[in-house]
Amino acid sequence: MLKIIPAPDLGTDSAEVIEILVKVGQTLAIDTPIVLLESAKASMEVPSPMAGVVTEILVKLGDNVSEGTVLVQVEVTETAATAEVETQAEAKHEMVFTPADEPVVPVVDVVKEAEKDVAVDKTVSPKSSSLAAPEVQTMTPPQAKALIHCGPAVRRLARELGVDLQQVQGTASKGRIVKDDVHAFVKKVLTTPAPVMTPTVVTSTSSGLPTLPEIDFSKWGEIELKPLTKIQKLSAQNLHRAWLHIPHVTQFDEADITELEAFRVAQKDALKAQGVSLTVLSFLVKASAYVLKQYPKFNASLSKDGEQLILKHYIHIGVAVDTPNGLVVPVIRHADQKSISAIAKELGELSAKARDKKLSPAEMQGASFSISSLGGIGGTAFTPIVNWPEVAILGVSRASQKPVWDGKAFVPRLLLPLSLSYDHRVVDGADGARFITALGQVLADIRRVLL
Prior knowledge:
- It is a single chain.
- By secondary structure, this protein is an alpha+beta fold.
- The protein folds into 3 domains: about 1-90, CATH 2.40.50.100; about 95-120 and about 145-190, Irregular (Dihydrolipoamide Transferase), CATH 4.10.320; about 230-450, Chloramphenicol acetyltransferase-like domain (Chloramphenicol Acetyltransferase, 2-Layer Sandwich).
- Helices cover about 25% and strands about 20% of the residues.
- The protein contains 9 helices and 21 strands.
- The strands form 6 sheets. Strands 11, 14, 17, 18, 19, 20 and 21 form a 7-stranded mixed beta sheet that branches. Strands 1-8-6-3 form a 4-stranded antiparallel beta sheet, with no helix packed on it.
- The longest helix has 16 residues, at about 230-245.
- The chain is globular.
- Residues about 85-145 and about 195-205 have low confidence and may be disordered.
């Protein structure tokens, strides 16, 4: 029996086919990824809703597809068709799962119909893009765990969308969660605008800047046009806006990490055996979280009208990750409550997902402070741009051995260059110096975080 697999609701008008994950003759299981699509906001894999054998691929790389576009043709066996019907029937039966049975594993970056609603709904209030909007998108599990009532099909859908069922309100009998409840939850998350929705364009005269002239570079030699990726375009817009609106100041210092590095080297093999890569960045995240609790102003945001400081009672640290498609910033949530080894493990997992384009939108939202580490590449210092709506960002360069006077002689010490950029409307120079000094003291003796 021949069946076609169309593109599902993408949550946007169209998306580009950037990778075809199957080939003719390949046997598909249910949920086998078929194609990888990229829209202006996210990348997403389209899973197969049925089992069978691919007989024809009806799209090619670079095609723009929309909802209903036929992707592949599949020959479905009678057994597979029967199994599919049984799976749908099974979903109707209620089952009870404990939180331990409900792992939240974001498999794809899914942009559902809610995002499409945002693009076409003219009645959305401009107030929805206010500064506090991103903070309602937290996907962290609640403190009190409760039993989850739902069917197996709902559980599978939640895993595919990266949804924590603890946060979904069931509307069926006795609070049971159905598929519509999961979709409604995703819609609520995606309809809350991220801070990148109203970028400032370089050529706009409304900013007061002169318009840049068009230049024909081909007059001086051969040229090549290489389009920016969507991630690069969004990053450029966000950084340009932040640079125009935030009065930046950067404080520089060096932290003595001689003992920290000796401790890291002594522990890295034991953790490597557990699949954890212990890097200096892991210590930086933990040390930053410790100092942020002492200086809460650096963990805040300035209200849109500039009249209030929004102090956050959580510490979520964004870590910039360089990928072939551009810079992304996954978030370590509640970094102050995690051990260094737990942070190292999470960093490795998020970095791998970033390189594979598997990060979900929720995993890149809600940061209250950011770290950009270039230590693995080089350099002595740089001026990182504050990632609005945050008010500060830490830049880290490559550590090097330098002679340091100990009162009697020069001794070799491993010094780590730190560059702290902050919003001068919120943080003054004295506080900036205090923060980076305190951070250097913690890095010099990491045992301070145990106090």
